[in-house]
Amino acid sequence: QICLSLVKLLFYLAHSPLGSIVLLDFQPRQFVMVDGNLKVTDMDDASTEELSCKEDSDCTLDFPTKSFPLKCSMGGKCEGINEKKNLFNAYRYFFTYLLPHSAPPTLRPLLSDILNATGDLRYGINETLGAFEKVLHLYKSGLYLQKRPLLLKDYISLKGFRTVEGEDYKCWPSYSHLGCLLSIHSAEEAAAICNSQSQCQSFIVTQQRTWTGRPLASFQSSWTDLIPDTNAVVYIKRSASSGERL
Fold first, then answer.
1. How far is CA 147 from CA 29, 65, 144, 188, 201, in A?
2. Which residues, in sequence order, are CB contacts of 127 under 8 Å at separation 6+?
3. What is the CATH number of the domain that holds 127?
4. How many whole angstroms separate alpha carbon 120 and alpha carbon 99?
5. Axis-axis angle for helices 81-90, 125-141 (nearest 10)
6. What is the CATH number of the domain that holds 238?
């Protein structure tokens, strides 16, 4: 969410009515999340000036660990230097820390491609935004899910119930530090996640949604303390409930 919001912001800056805007003091502390969108807190160090040049050798974009040769335009300006500077700073301050983590395994290669392409400045901001929106579409639609055996048939569902909240086993990347709370595309995906975790005996699908509209599911190591909740459905492994009365 943070990276996508940042890319949308940089897309706007690259195509602003004032021309391509560069953030000269590009640091994480210069940004804040407001209602799920990343915003710049200080525009004092923003500039629409692009480096003047006479030949291509005047247009080297230098960073502490990398340098990029750019083209000198017919108008005597280094082509795209503001856009590329913003994008590489996004790569080194945000993408490298946030993109490699917590995505479903089948989407990680696509995020790795974005990471590598922006790190080498092979992508401009248009291509980067397009790549992010493709990943988001796959994630929201569930198209990233690989065909696998249907596992939900191995669970008993009880509508209108959930387990008592409390500390339970933890997983990564959980939305709660008290237990294992993950976003899912469907109950079928939740069943596959539960089957992959040795501690999991049940899971609860709630009405809570993430910023992408995906429901949250809480994975539990037991199911015995059930309480009414009209907005939840608890799924219990048939093997865990055998010999018990529901």
1. 42, 42, 10, 11, 23
2. 117
3. 1.10.510.10
4. 16
5. 40
6. 3.50.4.10
Last residue of a domain, one of 115, 144, 173: 144
Question: In degrees rounded to 5, what are phi and psi of residue 103?
Answer: -85, 155
35 lies in the same domain as 85 = yes
List residues with catalytic annotation. 25
Contacts by 113-122 with C-beta closer than 8 Å and gap 24+?
115/91, 118/87, 118/88, 118/90, 118/91, 119/88, 119/91, 119/92, 119/95, 121/61, 121/68, 121/84, 121/87, 121/88
pLDDT band at 101 (very low <50, low <70, confident <90, very high): confident
H/E element, 190: helix 187-196
Tally of domains in the chain:
2
pTM: 0.85
Q: What residues have CB less than 8 Å from 175, skipping those under 6 apart? A: 181, 182, 183, 210, 216
Task: Band the pLDDT of 244: cuts 50, 70, 90.
Answer: low
SS3 state at 163: strand
Q: Are residues 88 and 117 in the same domain?
A: yes
For residue 13, the enclosing domain spans 1-144
